[in-house]
Fold:
Amino acid sequence: MRPGLTLRQVDVFRAIVKFGTVTAAAAALGSSQPTLTRELLRLEATVGFQLFERRRQRLHPTARALKLYHAIEEAYSGLDKINASLLRMRAAYGEILQVSTLPTFAQSLLPEAVARLHREAPGLTIEIDNGDPRNQSPISGFNFDLGLIEGEYDDPTTEVIPLGRFRQVCLIPAGHPLASGEGPLKLQDFEDHAFVSLGPKDPYRMILDRMFDEAGVTRRLPVTMQSANAVCEMVRSGLGVSILNPLTALGYLGDRVVLRGFAQAPGFVVSALHPADRPWVDSAGRLAGHLRAVCAETQQRLQALRLS
Structure:
C-alpha cells in the first residue's frame, strides 16, 4: 500500500496549483525552486500518477490532480470555518450565545427577547442560525445553546423548556367578506374561498387539511408557501385567507389584514431545546426566561383582541 500524503506535500501541491509555477510556489512557501522541484517529484511518486503538465512555462494540473485539489480544498474549508469561529471568539467581549431557531420565531419572538437580554448584558454576542434545531443530533453535532421549535418534543438528547401555548388565528384581507362579523369563524365559513396555505409537508397544514376534509369543506388553494411570513404577505396582497400561528399573524394586524378567531383552532406550542450534554451558559437561561415572558405578553394581547 502506498503511503498517504504528508501535510508538507499537501501544502506544496496546493501552492503549485494556485500559483502555476514552481518558482512562485517556492516563494510563497519560503522555499527555493530546486527544493520544491525535488519535492514535486517525490509527491508524484507518492500519489502514483502525473499531477501536472508543463505548457508555456506554467504547470497545469491534470484531471486527477484537479479532483485531488478539490478534495483538499474541502478539507481546508473546514479549517477555515474553525479559524473563523476562533476569530469570533477572540473578538467577542464576553460570552457567546448560539441560538438555532425556526425562521418564524426569528421574526416574531426573538427580536424583543434578544433586545431585553442585550439591555441586561450589552457585552454578550448572540449568533442566530435560522434552521430547525431538531435536524441536529449528537452524531451530526449540536451547534446551539438554545433552540426554538414549534410543537412538543421528546428526545433524551435534549432538555425541553415549554415557552407558551396558543391557538391559531384566521388572517383575512381587509375588505374580504369574512373580514367582518362577530365571533370566531368556523370551518364551513371557508367554503369555496381562496385559501393561502403552507407547504404540503408542514404539520399544521396537514392538521388543517384533515379538519377541512372531515368537515366536507372545499377551499381553493391558489398559492402555497413554505413560510408563515410569506403566507401573511400573500394574504396582505389579497390573494386569499389563511389560518396561521398567532405570533406571526400579529405582526400583520392592521396592515391591510384583519385577524379573527377560529372556533376549531388547533393548538400552537412553542418550546425551547437545550442539548443535554452541552454545558449551560448563563445567557441561555436568561434568554429562555425572556422568551417565556414575551409569550405570556402575547397571550394577554390575544385575549384582549378576543383571539384566544
Summary: The chain has a mean pLDDT of 89. The longest strand covers residues 158-167. The first helix runs from residue 7 to 19. Residues 169-265 form a domain with the D-Maltodextrin-Binding Protein; domain 2 fold (CATH 3.40.190.10).
